[in-house]
Amino acid sequence: MSLYQFGPFELDAEQLLLSVAGVPVALGPKVVETLLALLEHPGEVLSKSALLDRVWPDGFVEEANLAQNIYVLRKTLRAHWDADAIATVSRRGYRFVGEVRLVERTPSAPIAAPAVQDAGIPRRSALRRWGGAAAALAATIVLSFFAISSNTSAHLAGGTALSPKGARLYAIGRYYWNQRTASGVTKSLAYFTQVVDTDPRDARGYAALADANAIMADYGYGSLKSPVYMERAHAYAQKALALDADSAEAYAVLGMIDSEMMSEKVLGRKAAAARTARGIAELRRSIALDASYGPAHEWYGIALLEGGRAHDALRELQAAANLDPLSISTTAWLSSAAYLDRQYDEAIAYAHQAIDLAPSRPDVWQNLGLSYEARGDRALAIATYKIYATKCASCATQASALLAHAYAVQHEMPLARAALAKAQADPNAPPSDIATALAAFGERTSAFVWLRRMHGYPHALIALDPRLDVLRHDARFRDFVQSPA
Length: 485
What we know:
Arc Repressor Mutant, subunit A, mainly alpha, 24 helices, 3 domains
């Protein structure tokens, strides 16, 4: 087993696992491969082309991905090491300038490393993907994961410090919480409970338990119904505020819960608007209390996007990504916001970054295909939609609807009709994607019939979709956008 030791870090070359003081750092495999390539040649300049060929041998990447990997590595290393270990050599590439020691070991037993797990799509994401993911995707198993070295550690330093044991339990709990898998969030609940047991007068343990229960509800995890987990989340957040009236983490999770776009047909328009406004106010208060807390910026960006403010949402999500560059969720939502703001090159770059971190995350592949199609790269879009079809049990139906639109706009009508028929055969077919395909066929009346089947989705968000431009000057489109969700 080859271990590269440098500063307080150790990198296991076989398992692509970076750790600091024995604690795994949650980095995507492509980021770790970039670091490994530099460590294998300390002091040598590796050209950008050499690194691209090494890390992405299939060539399916843009140079911006490499720059992002270097940025993430520098931020991660600096969080625990007072050294600028990666140098940029102008017009040539990068080199590792820190001292590196290679250790060869033969372990007596396999080392079980906590994996950086891919996850699926949360319930709120399925309900908020401008209708594309539909409720069926909510049943699959993404939001974000942070490196322990990133923003999470900063929040342990605010106010009175957690005990050393509590701080370690908190860090491990955040590591698992950020994976957003069923097993990861469940493990985080156990660790955060231990934080509360260890430091019962510290608000952070309770706020973290609120986060974990909110994600259990959002993703539909666990054996209990979502409202039960959501009630627990609210109660833990209130307990955190009772201990610390300025808990940014508690206000953020309350804002995430309250800004959830509930159907106006269920709550009534005034009640739904009041709840959303309260959630946005709580998110803003969280940011005012601690502008360095990434999840608050992310959840605020999502709320802005749902309100139809794509450009403002993109700016807020970029702030979240700068704070937590390893957050899959933030990067995925950045791709969505850039697409809906018609910044297609940015949307593609963000999608690639998210795929590097979580190759199996379905909705990122969907958004990558949409962005390729909007940019005019229809062959790449079709190839990406076909990959998307393999990513989850319900993805094939939506992929067929996406393919129907892509084939229609390039006038391959037999293929378009066949794909649409396949999608419509599934009773859980996503209405908005069926509608966009029908609009591309010129069947506007049928398209509006399908759009009106969308209950519980924020219409202002759906209305941003570039594929619906062909309907934008139709009076029925304006009525749809203004109708209750």
